[in-house]
DNA sequence: TGGATGATCAACT
DNA sequence: GTTGATCATCCAC
């Protein structure tokens, strides 16, 4: 983050219609947008730099593959533009954005953020230390992975189902300038069990951004 | 710089 | 009882 960027922030919340598309399209559209967690008047903001699409019934990597519908996956079947937050490996939370119309269980996993505002607070949630106490490697590691960014932004189970067009956790675009970047399309991460689906090019990231989790 | 491993729990078999 | 949309740590090279 630098002060020039901060002074240029002019955030405009995305409305429901933005999310009414399939997860691959939504993935690409989410790159470069700003995820905001507003808590106690303080804002934690990260730019979305890496995402993955999970395409539902036909996608062997998706929790909703073959129409699987459980308490955990239920929000993916609901209204688009809500958060799907789940516990992974008993240790970390992952944040997804529910895509497509109600009844179609697709989602976009947010895999990495570039910290834009509130890094001092993120450092405390993530490492229990002040930002100035962190090593250089720890600063890059604040938000460069799906579990890491949830810890840094204090996103936990209570945010499952949260309406991302609301006031607590939401996604914005920056109206002040149009950013230029290339999008890299490649394989998703951590889905070796998913047979042919493991090769689908449904991970997208902003080329050359240092906060991308895996190049 | 990269491979192996353990943490820890909900979903599923 | 096994596995997983992860991560930090340890150890070899």
From TrEMBL:
HAMAP family: 3MGH. Belongs to the DNA glycosylase MPG family. This is Putative 3-methyladenine DNA glycosylase. Keywords: DNA damage, DNA repair, Hydrolase. It comes from Lutispora thermophila DSM 19022. It is an enzyme of class 3 (hydrolase). Its EC number is 3.2.2.-. GO terms for molecular function: alkylbase DNA N-glycosylase activity; DNA binding. It holds the Pfam family Pur_DNA_glyco. The keyword NADP does not apply. InterPro entries: Formyl_transferase-like_C_sf, MPG, MPG_sf. The keyword Ribosomal protein does not apply. GO terms for biological process: base-excision repair.
